[in-house]
Amino acid sequence: MPAIFDALPGIEVPVGAIAKRLGELWTDAGASGAPTIEADDAKATQVNFVLHLGLNTTAEDAAAQFKTVEEFSKRYPSRIVVLCPLHDDDPATEMRAKIYGECFLGKSKSDKRCVEFVMLSYPRSARPFLESQVSICLSTDLPLYYWAHRFSSSARLADYRYLLGRAKRVMIDSEIAPADAFTFPWPNPNALRDLVYSRLLPVRRTIGQFLSSYAPEKLAAGLCAVTVGHDVERSAEGRVLLNWFCRRLAACNVAAESVTFAVAPLPAESGGNLGVRFDYAGVNKFFRWNGDLMSGFAAFEADFGDGPTTLSAGVSLLSPDAALSEAMFF
After folding, report:
1. Edge to edge, what strands does the sheet with 286-292 contain?
2. Vertex 205: Cα angle to 204 and 211 (nearest 5)
3. Which of 4, 7, 141, 278 is least surrounded, with the fewest CB atoms within 10 Å of its CB?
4. Looking at the structure, do residues 77 and 179 belong to the same domain, yes or no?
């Protein structure tokens, strides 16, 4: 299986010459007749971004996440460091580096957005020197964002205290993260963001807009159960969506102990990926939402005491790069 470092694009350079070769990356392009970035374009960099590809990452997965960050950088010009750890802990294995740069045109020719990548491959024996090398690669006056992807252990990731402590946001995908990822005592737990929650933004928005047309008292009175259904591929989305309902209903003065919150497999006949139902005791009320993320179609059925309502709506998840920006900035 090829190493994730080898699956990523770029020009290999000596680790000690990264800064120098990044500068030459654009001047060398100009010498060959390709367009170069101007000084003002280089100053347009908005964020430092570290993508940490954990030991569970495959070469194909690494290339896909690289593409996600590349798409993100089209809107937010970035200096990006990609960390590629090796299973090898041989002290004789040296750290390796690649650099890669790309510019994108915006709505006009003067709207040029440029991104610079530094890829670092390192064995476990080089771990004590890694964050020092990362700090050299970053722009000192810009905020840092850190995405930990497919890490194998929360305890091992916690060893990267420089990145976890300095980062304005730490992105983790709870679908593939260790089970204790959101209960582990991180240096700055308030910085943690779940990419599953971010991907669900369109779902949360459409359901929230529908329910917000009813008074909180109507939603809460008699409510006894909230169930989120999901197919086999959307268990993480089901769990995260249920937690969101717990928080939002608490804001409507629904006592958690009076309601049963549960996730359950979605019946095959439902024809969707995700579903939500509210059940009520002692009153003739109900709420149902069913969404098919493949077709982009969703349906509401509800009666909160004023007569039945049905409504069709669109449904989707955010694209990976849009979910990344949602987790980082909102």
Report:
1. 260-265, 223-230, 274-280, 286-292, 297-303, 309-314
2. 90
3. 141
4. yes
Two tokens, residue 112 = 């040029």
By three-state DSSP, how is residue 295 classified? coil
Which is it for the CA torsion 128, 3, 17, 149, positive or negative?
negative
Residues 170, 38 share a domain: yes
Helices 235-251 and 201-211: angle between axes, nearest 10 degrees:
40
CA 230 to chain centre: 20
- Token duo for residue 181: 């990822």
* Of residues 125, 123, 116, 124, the one with CA closest to residue 37: 116
Q: For residue 29, which phi and psi values (nearest 5 degrees)?
A: -65, -40
User: Which residues on neighbouring strands pair with residue 99, listed in sequence order?
Assistant: 11, 118
CA distance 321 to 69: 7
Nearest CA to 262 among 291, 241, 288?
Answer: 241
What angle (nearest 5°) sits at the alpha carbon of residue 295, between those of residues 290 and 301?
20
The per-residue pLDDT for range 207-249, each reduced to its tens digit, is 999 999 999 999 999 999 999 999 999 999 999 999 999 999 9
Q: What is the pLDDT of residue 222?
A: 94
Contact indicator for 191, 169 with CB cutoff of 8 Å:
yes
End-to-end Cα, the chain, rounded Å: 37
Tell me if 328 is assigned to some domain. no
- 8-state DSSP, 257: G
Bridge partners for 13 per DSSP: 97
Structural domain includes residue 292: yes
Q: Which two tokens stand for residue 240?
A: 């995260």
Q: What does the alpha-carbon distance between residue 216 and residue 249 come to, in Å, rounded to a whole number?
A: 8
Residue 39 has pLDDT above 70, yes or no: no
Choice between 300 and 107, residue whose per-residue pLDDT is larger: 300
What residues make up the domain containing 285?
A: 201-314
Tell me, yes or no, whether 121 and 189 share the same domain. yes
Tokens found for residue 242:
């249920």
Same domain, 178 and 43: yes
Q: To the nearest 10°, the Cα dihedral for 216, 218, 224, 230?
A: -70
